[in-house]
Amino acid sequence: MKTKKFRLIIFAITLLFAAPLHSADQDLSRQIKEHKARSESTWTALAAKEFDERILPAPDIILDYLRLENQYQGFSERPQRPEEIDPEFLADINNAYFDLPEVVKDQIKEHILAIFLVQDLGGSAYAELLRDFEKNKLGFIVLDVSVLNRKANAWLSWKENSPFNEKGGYSIQATLETEINNTRKSAIQFILLHEIGHIIGVAKGAHPNWASGGNPEKWPFAKYSWLKKQPDSKAKTRHDKVFPLRSKVQFYSFQKAPLTSSDIEKTYSQLIKTDFVSLYSSTNMYDDFAETYALYVHTVLQDRPYIINILKNDGTTRLLLSDPIQESRCEVKKKYMDKFFE
Question: pTM score, two decimals?
Answer without folding.
Answer: 0.90
